[in-house]
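Quick one, probably user error.
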């Protein structure tokens, strides 16, 4: 994969999250809705924790007090999303309650993504040297492979405690993932190709 900046990597994740929600909405039967809902949740969970471990500390380090305010607001957005996603997991797919909860998640994420892409990430990138951004992107990608795949709204959302909590939750999440339905890899690739991602 070509080298990307941190901003490009985060924005790429945002496009995938939006795509997975759209695939959920397009699904016409409960089985496919379940698969895409799980894919959406899986990606949001991994992305959120990776931002909290890699991106938000950079906000605080590189942008001072403004960066701390940005990170605090973004962490609050993530807590709201994780709380809603935890509720999503407790209701049956295909029910109006499931649909409404996922719609609320999408609404919170849409505003969060807009703020990050229009304000937070450009501001951070302006303070990072190119090599710093590339290195942060690599850390972001590595972190996504090691973090929980389910929402944990009560877990700490700042390193180092979040990192420890994530490592403790990961094995349980992975076991749950084994018993959950997800789209086949070919389905995900086809959806991404069609969307130009």
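Nope, works fine. Designed sequence:
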């Amino acid at each position: 994969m070509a080298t990307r900046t941190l901003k490009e990597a985060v924005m790429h994740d945002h496009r995938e999250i939006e795509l997975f929600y759209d695939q959920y909405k397009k699904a016409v039967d409960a089985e496919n809705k379940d698969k895409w809902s799980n894919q959406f949740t899986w990606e949001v969970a991994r992305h959120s924790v990776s931002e909290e471990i890699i991106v938000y500390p950079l906000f605080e380090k590189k942008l001072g007090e403004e960066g701390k305010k940005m990170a605090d607001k973004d962490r609050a957005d993530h807590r709201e999303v994780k709380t809603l996603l935890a509720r999503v997991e407790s209701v049956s797919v295909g029910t109006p309650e499931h649909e409404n909860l996922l719609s609320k998640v999408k609404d919170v994420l849409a505003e969060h993504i807009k703020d990050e892409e229009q304000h937070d990430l450009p501001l951070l990138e302006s303070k990072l040297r190119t090599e710093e951004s590339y290195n942060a992107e690599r850390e972001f990608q590595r972190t996504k492979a090691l973090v929980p795949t389910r929402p944990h709204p009560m877990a700490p959302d700042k390193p180092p405690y979040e990192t420890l909590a994530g490592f403790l939750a990961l094995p349980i999440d992975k076991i749950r993932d084994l018993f959950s339905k997800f789209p086949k890899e070919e389905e995900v690739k086809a959806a991404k190709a069609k969307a130009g991602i």
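The longest helix spans residues 30-88.
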